[in-house]
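This section describes the prediction task in plain terms. A model, or a person checking by hand, is given the sequence of a single protein chain and must write out its three-dimensional structure as a string of tokens. No templates, partner chains or ligands are provided. The sample shown here is typical of the held-out split.
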Amino acid sequence: MDYYANNKEETYRKITRWMWYISLGGLGAILLSFFILSFTNLPSVQQLENPKSEEASQLFAANGEVIGRYYTENRVPVSYSELSPHLVNALIATEDERYHEHSGIDFPALGRVAIKTVLLGQRSSGGASTITQQLAKLLFTGQAASNMTERIIQKLKEWIIAVRLERRYTKEEIIAMYLNKFNFINGAYGIKAASEIYFGKPQDSLSISEAAVLVGMLKNPSLFNPMRRPDTVLHRRMVVFKQMQNNGMISQEEYDTLRQLPLGINFTRQTHVDGIAPYFRMELAKDIKSILERKEFRKSDGSAYDIYRDGLRIYTTIDPDMQRLAEEVMAKHMAKVQNAFWNTWKAVRKDPWEFTSGSEHEVPVSIRKESLKDLVRKSDRYQNLRAKYLSD
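The expected answer:
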């Protein structure tokens, strides 16, 4: 009787042992598959060292003043040394407290999230993505996948890319790359454009409060959009202030003062026609495109530079002060001339583009309409849209 009981117990132990082997082996196989897949389609060394990022070309007057930009994405990069210290402090305090202590992956933060999420069931346990991982996502992996399996593989890739980025760039370069790459929406690509559009000033002149607003947008620019959700942005700014205080970047007194301040948004949407000499810039763009097609001005790979994407610096001999005076005089007289033009045609109830008098010296309607279409095709907006959607 004891023999059969012992034999049965031994058989049960063997079955249990093999079930554990199979379960752990299956789990190991799954983890190994994730690990192997995470190494597929990774960016090459060349891509890591030369990440793609569309940059606006800047047009300079004779005195060095920027008088316009050509772009599909209004992005002008700034170096780390040019960044506002308030921006850097707010960024590190809010997004990556141990930024200078890790090499791309913050393992203590990962452990915290795992414990709170898995063991305590807290969904809002905070993120563990470092600034470097967020840069890897912006540059290479894109938006988070909806499928859980794909998301795990994507996250593993971000870790690998983050470590590789840390090996190739300094901490300062990574911060600058991240802030330059981020899309702050409303046409604000990168921190320079964001500062100009939301606060009407250069980014190196931002106050602590203004820097906190922009850093707060990094979590979710649509949710923390100052133009649509000011109350939500105020709350998010408070979070940034609190993180800065917790990390010793501002005092309790500064925190108490800053939290009372209004957002101070000075929204100024930027367009291609902003600034002086818009017609000059439009004609100049055509000449520049023609020049860039020439063999001696092509890139090392043989392709032509793109005036809207390659961040060119174009210098002209135009005198900005004289140009402004000329435009002021033109605007003053054009108002009278244009008013007389419209009053004349309004009186006869005719469309100047289609009216025919029968005179032999009259410009044919077809030519007039074609001229109107030509003006549309020459417009900066048309050229920008064509470059963006019909470049191929």
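For orientation: The chain has a mean pLDDT of 85.
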